[in-house]
Write a structure and sequence with these properties.
The chain is an alpha/beta fold. It is 48% helix and 12% strand. A seven-stranded mixed sheet has the order 5-2-1-6-7-11-10, with helices on both faces. Strands 3-4 form a two-stranded antiparallel sheet. It has a two-stranded parallel ribbon with strand order 8-9. The longest helix has 20 residues. The two termini are 45 Å apart.
């Protein structure tokens, strides 16, 4: 039986903790029904006190404090609500404990924004990770020695696990159930909790908001120009001219500031506009493509699929209410 320690702190997201608990305890019940031993001993662990009042009207009574944990197989850091700096500062003891326990051989997992705890503990240095799509740019800037995988639902490297955002993080719990209990237990859990199995991509959930966490005024002007003229046939040379730079220098500064080349940024702005149109109506794909500044349908579909993980038609079926209602 594996002991799983769920970290509890006042900023923790309630659904993140309770969802993981429900799934792990649920699979124990399934195993008992088929005559097998329970797979998980689930314990709630906090820093100092055993009664943790969340910022929501909910309280967890923890089994142990971190000082009382002598052995555990897996520590799970759930997501938090709040600004990363404040949360990490408040919970620095938990960060230190994660580093100490991993050095002793304990595996560590993060759900959604829990990835910040692993990163702060130095556990992701030189490794790849994922997290909630809204946090990826900030994590990329904070932790340049970590490879951020924005599309991934989960990562598994040498006993360190990370997961995508919000409820999709429960796919990591499902993955761990399969890893430790087998495929049959994972299938049962998937069906019982209505979680799609084998999800590998979270990119279609992301909303592109422009990488503006930098202080390069000329590049900010170039970004604004792109966002105002994305539907036109503008070139990198034109955009560089707006910033009064040579093309070569402009591309270099743009990549440093935004982590994208100007062409990648332009494509993401175009595709974000197309996504919004697909969500609203059943407009002809060709018309929608032209409105987003593309002239070639094949190119549009290829770029859309690369950025979102779905074709335009698949995206529309998933997010446009009128189309989904008509297909039922």
């Amino acid at each position: 039986m594996k002991t799983v320690s769920l970290l509890i702190y006042e900023d923790a997201v309630l659904s993140c903790v309770s969802g993981a608990m429900d799934m792990l305890i649920g699979v124990n019940r399934y195993l008992a029904q088929i005559g097998k031993e329970p797979a998980f001993n689930v314990e709630l662990v906090s820093e100092k006190v055993k009664n943790i009042q969340l910022q929501l009207p909910a309280q967890f009574i923890c089994y142990k404090t971190i000082d009382e944990v002598t052995h555990t197989d897996l520590i799970v850091a759930p997501a938090f609500a709040g600004e990363p700096d404040a949360v990490l500062r408040k919970n620095s003891a938990l960060v230190d404990w994660l580093a100490t326990m991993h050095a002793r051989g304990t595996e560590v997992a993060s759900l959604c924004l829990g990835s910040y705890f692993l990163a702060e503990a130095g556990l992701l240095k030189g490794k790849s990770c994922t997290s909630h799509w809204m946090a990826l740019e900030d994590m990329r800037n904070r932790y340049p020695d970590i490879t951020i995988l924005p599309d991934k639902v989960m990562t598994d490297q040498e006993g360190i696990y990370t997961s995508g955002g919000a409820f999709i993080s429960l796919n990591l719990v499902l993955y761990l159930i399969e890893k430790f209990c087998g495929r049959d237990a994972s299938i049962w859990t998937s069906k019982m909790f209505s979680i799609d199995m084998d999800r590998v991509n979270q990119s279609h959930f992301a909303v592109f908001q422009g990488q503006r966490q930098h202080e390069d005024e000329e590049i900010l002007k170039a970004q604004a120009y792109i966002e105002a003229h994305y539907d036109q046939q503008i070139s990198v040379e034109q955009i560089a001219g707006q910033a009064n730079m040579s093309k070569r220098n402009f591309i270099r500064r743009f990549k440093v500031a935004t982590q994208n080349t100007p062409l990648e940024y332009l494509q993401r702005v175009k595709i974000e506009s197309a996504k919004k149109e697909l969500e609203k109506n059943s407009q002809n794909i060709s018309t929608l493509m032209y409105n987003a500044g593309y002239n070639d349908l094949k190119t549009f579909r290829q770029v859309f699929k690369r950025i979102t993980g779905l074709t335009p038609q698949e995206y529309r079926r998933k997010y446009c209410r009128s189309v989904s209602e008509l297909s039922n």
